[in-house]
Design goal:
By secondary structure, the chain is mainly β. It contains 3 helices and 11 strands; from the N terminus they run βααββββββαββββ. The chain is globular and about 45 Å long.
Length: 262
């Protein structure tokens, strides 16, 4: 489904495009699409891309291989509301080693709504190792330059960040994907819910690093720290912890940027 006319910023990009409509149950109390809805549409487009270009996610899974999200960053330019029609473009970038790179752009009425960049690993489910880029045939995928963004792909928590526990989440059956891991499109809403006074905030963007799987039956401990607030924008840092034997290990690290509704 390539070749669809989108915003000027993505014309000329060698990309794959899909089309969606925001549903009434995708929005919050302000009628704005929830953070996880944005990510779900991005990931769905990537799955469609794999389905149409091969190998599909399910073909790889049947071979004992699975894509695992390592990092994702997303900038939200405008809000979406029920029945908005959106176009989502995705493409890969030249990858090397064991890191697979994927980009996304979302637009409504020809105007940019969101952009995102992600990095993935492919796990050998049988042997437990990490496969290299040359082990997966992605020669049919659209490839272009990485998307330009202001959020960092990698970030570090400030040395003076003061984390405190703000909640927990039991990982239940319906939270899980085929790997019996909590699906990566559920973390955004989970963390967004722990932004203080969230009902009066607008999400501007986030960046996340997935470090250890959240597996069925485990409980995530959510920790939060406040970052620097400037010019009406706020930064919040999160990390989720999961039990691993006799110790707690980091499951996800994240940075969220938001502003107050005016």
């Amino acid at each position: 489904m390539s070749g669809v006319n989108l915003d000027e910023k993505i014309k000329g990009i060698n990309c794959y495009v899909e089309h969606y409509e925001i549903m009434a149950h995708d929005v919050d109390a302000h009628n704005n699409a929830k953070p996880s809805v944005i990510v779900r549409l991005l990931q769905e487009t990537a799955n469609h891309h794999m389905r149409d270009r091969r190998p599909t996610y399910y073909e790889l899974f049947s071979q004992g291989k699975s894509y695992i999200l390592i990092r994702i960053k997303c900038e939200i330019v405008d809000r979406l509301h029920p029945y908005d029609k959106v176009d989502v473009a995705t493409w890969t970038s030249v990858s090397k080693g064991a890191t697979f790179k994927r980009n996304y752009l979302m637009s409504k009425d020809g105007k940019e709504v969101a952009r995102a960049y992600s990095e993935w690993a492919v796990v050998d489910l049988n042997g437990g190792g990490i496969l290299r880029v040359e082990d997966i045939d992605t020669s049919n995928f659209e490839v272009d330059e990485p998307i330009e963004m202001t959020l960092p792909t990698k970030f570090h928590f400030p040395s003076d960040a003061e984390f405190s526990e703000c909640g927990n989440k039991e990982i239940l059956y319906t939270d899980c994907d085929m790997n019996l891991h909590m699906n990566n499109t559920l973390y955004q809403d989970m963390l967004w819910n722990h932004i203080p006074d969230v009902e009066n905030k607008i999400l501007k963007g986030f960046t996340m690093r997935f470090m250890k799987e959240g597996t069925l039956g485990k409980t995530l401990k959510v920790l939060r720290a406040e970052g620097l607030a400037e010019e009406g924008n706020e930064t919040w840092f999160f990390k989720t912890m999961i039990e691993d034997g006799s110790e707690m290990k980091v499951n996800v690290e994240a940075m969220f940027k938001c502003s107050t509704i005016v």
